[in-house]
Amino acid sequence: MEKIKVMSVFGTRPEAIKMAPLIKELEKYSEIQSKICVTAQHREMLDQVLDLFNIEPDYDLNIMKEKQSLSGITTSVLNNLEKIFQEENPHIVLVHGDTTTTFAASLAAFYNKIKIGHVEAGLRSYDKYFPYPEEMNRKLTGALADLHFAPTIRNMENLIKEGVKEDNIFITGNTVIDAMNFTVEEEYIFNNEELNKINYNKKVILVTAHRRENWGEGIDNICKALLEIKTKNEDVEVIYLVHLNPVVKDAVFRCLGGVEGIHLLPPLDTKETHNLMKKCYFIMTDSGGIQEEAPHLGKPVLVLRDVTERIEAVEAGTVRIVGTSKENIVKEANDLVNINKEYLKMSKATNPYGDGRASERIVSKIIEYFNKKV
């Protein structure tokens, strides 16, 4: 019997983290021929994840350019994948989530009449500019996809409302939980020496904030809030993993550079980040993925955005949306620092994103789907 040729396409660090356990699962099955194509929409951060999981791509488009535009990424992916898809002719292309690589790869697969499997399907904020461009990337990918691997029941319901047939939607949990089962260690020692020197008996707040919609006033307000939180709470230490984009980096260092008890560090690799999340007290972020990862570790999350597509975490009580108002950020953070019952309410809530077997379920459904087609 002909093997099922599965081509996984991804280009950023968040995609790689969540696709890595799925790729490892695909390798276990003799009836599957797994192919990997990376676009390198992010280069260095992507390579860190590939090294961590020992993944060797079959194709590397290496499209990253300085000051790359969204339209430039889209056209580069489309043009490069055309040749590869025609040469490989996979049975299905797997894409993940909501990046520009995801949408462009789905469009390229559609143009070549190749089946599309969308991992982490069905997330919606219902505001096309928040997050930007991710909300439209995932909606457009959903319109093109044939198989929809939804992490939660709510994600499935979102897709059904948009006209996707229920038979083509599979609730799997989120593959990021699979990844964390690989990366988090009990007695972890950091490669970054500054992290080893921090007193984790204090209330360490981990911060990441870099999204486009927060550039300018949003980042400024977040930084001012962090300064006030640290000033008012002697037992708090802040670790801000500062994105390398100059728009973000310059603003953060201008406000917080040299402040005692606030550690401004570059982005860490995946293993370092996951283990730092485990050691911290709580997290403030505008990231989507961290909203899924932190509940697995029992860490409360304050979301530095006005909307989130991870509604399940809000409903479960592990995540709270605080926006980018300085006053609101300070209030909510101080509540977690100083009111134990508020902290326990969030830290003890149930993780809504699954049991770490999402990759196994996805591969099983792919095999089942193509066996039916034979």
From TrEMBL:
Pfam family, one: Epimerase_2
Keyword Translocase: no
TM spans (from-to): none
Entry GO MF terms: UDP-N-acetylglucosamine 2-epimerase activity
SUPFAM superfamilies to which the protein is assigned, alphabetical: UDP-Glycosyltransferase/glycogen phosphorylase (SSF53756)
Keyword field: Isomerase
InterPro entries to which the protein is assigned, alphabetical: UDP_GlcNAc_Epimerase_2_dom, WecB-like
Keyword Metal-binding: no
Enzyme kind, highest EC tier: isomerase
Superkingdom: Bacteria
Residue ranges annotated for the UDP-N-acetylglucosamine 2-epimerase domain, each copy included: 24-366
EC nos: 5.1.3.14
CDD domains the record matches: GTB_UDP-GlcNAc_2-Epimerase (cd03786)
Family: Belongs to the UDP-N-acetylglucosamine 2-epimerase family.
Family annotation (PANTHER family): UDP-N-ACETYLGLUCOSAMINE 2-EPIMERASE
Protein name: UDP-N-acetylglucosamine 2-epimerase (non-hydrolyzing)
Species name: Clostridium homopropionicum DSM 5847
